[in-house]
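Narrative progress, year one. The postdoctoral researcher (J.K.) led the effort to move from monomer predictions toward full complexes, under supervision of the PI. The following entry was the first complex the group processed end to end, covering 522 residues in total.
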Amino acid sequence: MSTKKRRLLKVIILGDSGVGKTSLMNQYVQKKFTKEYKATIGADFLTKEIEVDDKKVTMQIWDTAGQERFQSLGSAFYRGADCCVLVFDVNNAKSFDDLDNWRDEFIIQAGPPDPDNFPFMVLGNKIDENGGSSRQVSEKKAKAWCASKGSIPYFETSAKEDINVEAAFTCITRNALRNEKEEELFMPDAVDMNTTATQRKRAGCC
Amino acid sequence: MDAERISHDGQLLQGASRPAGIDRLRRILTAYALTDSEVGYCQGMTDLCAPLLEVYPRDDQQAFDAFCGLMGRVRANFLGGMADMRRQLGLLGEVLGRLDARLHRHLVVIGAGSYVFAFQMLLLQLRREVAWADVFVLWETMWAREARLAAASGLPPAAAGRGAAVAETSQAQPPLQPQQQQQHQQYQELVPPPLQGAVRVDLRVFVVAAALLGQRAALLSCASMEEVVQFANHFPQPTNVVALVDQAERLFLKFGRLQRQRNGGSLSGCLRGGCTSSNGVELAAEEPMAAAFAGALPAQAQPGVTADGGDEHGAS
């Protein structure tokens, strides 16, 4: 057990400004919530060491600026991501409509080798707001979108009330680890970027 | 608009006065968005506006005018595509590459050579990195020095080259109310005409360079891009912001000298002139200032500048 290597999982949180990306990250990692987060400019990350299914994992969770204008710079941090968490506010229909853009942009910028099987996750946040009376996006609608994008797992969360936050991130970890295993099975000699690059180069030459 | 997501810095944004302070912020930022639809509202503008509330604790009009003046300097930072931010990040890399090759090389090796970690510092003019009480000392010192350097060189300060865009976009707006019209006119007066073909005095980039060099040892001890990002997001507050600007000015002049030597003493498109540096040293008469702008792009440059300099004078 103790000789097992600790895996590093890079998680990117994306979504419109004000949907609660920073709050979700802080609730998960530091178990605290405050309404007073400053708007994120650029990017920041927190790490958390966990153990899932007997595997030791260091989660590196990246929180990026949500305003569209900053998107092109935030993408500098997408590289090497193991999974991507798309967040919207269930009380804000536009933030849900924008999920398509965030997903597409991530795929373009991060360039995962197998985009169709890349582990995404969708979180509908702020379910606590006004006791649910201001909701604009139903669970059914959100789940339908997730199903149409290749069965993306969906969780309804409240960073404020700490509802489903731990469960969602545990699920993210499992999916990322499973994806890692499948990648290993798929191309056993090409698990790091350099090997892949060399192979590609070789293929180009011959 | 998320005016409420402003830090609790300053008396007017704390405790019982916070709701009123946030209302004022919202009014001023809304008025600005109406005046300048190309920029509109962007996150970070609250950070720039908040200190002005304290300078003009009761007068929204004056605070608005001052904010327009401030935006005049940094407006390009907020325009779509972030082309000007990329240019500034590229210049920052070029400046550090020239003035502290070891530090620059280290940052490149660990994957932080794009300097995106300094994005917040540049965008918000170090507003979040310095103590609240120091914000205005820093900004005013920086603006004064920038004006002096610009006057000495005959080149425009960082603000120039944006008037046309404001004038164009404002024509497409619905008719303004009398008060808005007055504000708009005052804003227009703050906008200098664009100077085609000139280069700018980007002292703010050198202030950020000075701040980074002040933390050289810590940056050299960062072993990864991630560590640099975390360090930058919890940047140690500079203790003396005037000294920081002094240092920035010295870096600016030194960078200019090195660029001039590298380019064999001639730089096309730059103006001639002499100046006296902050520590009273008389500089050589032959285009000492002009050379300092070698990393800056022409004002009419197109977006899409690469992160490693990008113009004809860029580091190879």
